[in-house]
Design brief:
Layout lengths: L1 H19 L1 H13 L3 H4 L3 H10 L2 H19 L5 H30 L39 H16 L4
Helix pairs in contact: 1-5, 6-7
The structure holds zinc ion (ZN).
Zinc ion (ZN) binds next to loops.
C-alpha cells in the first residue's frame, strides 16, 4: 500500500517535472533548427511551439504518467485500515500509560475535597454534570476500553485535572 503510494507520487512528480521542461526543450529545438532570429520574426512561433510539443511522444508519455499518478493517489485512502488500527492502538496505549501514572496521584489529591463532591466509585471529583466518566463511562479505565471515545476521554481528563488542582482552585 505504502509502496504503491510512493510509486504514484513519483509518477506524478516525474511527469509534471518532465513536462515543465518540455517548453524550454522545444524552444531549444527551434533555435537549433532555425537560428535565434526565428524567435523575433516568426509570428507563428507560438503555434509552432505548440505543435512541436504535441508531436513529442515524451510529452504524452509524461502527461499520461502524471495523470495516472494523480488519479492513483486520489483513489488511495489516506491511511490503510491496518495503519489506522495501528495508530489507534498507539493512541490507546499512550492514554492508558498516562492514566496509570496520573490516576493514583489524582485520587490521592481528591481526598482533600468535600466528600459530597466526589464520585463514590472512583473517588474523583464530579464535573458539573454529576456524571463520572472515569468510572461509569465504561472502559475509560479498563484495558483496551474506550479511552478512544473522545467525549469520555476529555471528561475523564477534566476530572483528573480538577482533582489535581485541589478543592479551592
Ligand atoms: Zn467515578
Amino acid at each position: 500500500m505504502k509502496a504503491l503510494r510512493y510509486l504514484f507520487a513519483g509518477m506524478l512528480f516525474v511527469g509534471l517535472a518532465g513536462n515543465v521542461l518540455v517548453l524550454p526543450y522545444v524552444m531549444w529545438l527551434q533555435v537549433s533548427r532555425r537560428g535565434i532570429l526565428a524567435f523575433f520574426f516568426d509570428p507563428m512561433l507560438d503555434l509552432q511551439l505548440a505543435l512541436d510539443i504535441l508531436m513529442l511522444p515524451l510529452f504524452w508519455i509524461m502527461l499520461a504518467m502524471s495523470l495516472v499518478g494523480f488519479f492513483g493517489l486520489q483513489r488511495m485512502p489516506a491511511m490503510s485500515q491496518k495503519e489506522l488500527a495501528r495508530s489507534q492502538e498507539e493512541l490507546a496505549r499512550t492514554r492508558h500509560a498516562w492514566l496509570e501514572e496520573v490516576l493514583p496521584r489524582a485520587k490521592e489529591a481528591a481526598k482533600a475535597f468535600p466528600p459530597g463532591t466526589l464520585c463514590k466509585h472512583c473517588g474523583l471529583p464530579y464535573l458539573e454534570t454529576q456524571e463520572c466518566y472515569v468510572c461509569t463511562h465504561d472502559g475509560v479505565l479498563s484495558p483496551g476500553g474506550s479511552v478512544l471515545d473522545e467525549l469520555a476521554w476529555g471528561a475523564a481528563r477534566e476530572q483528573i485535572a480538577e482533582a489535581l488542582k485541589g478543592p479551592v482552585g
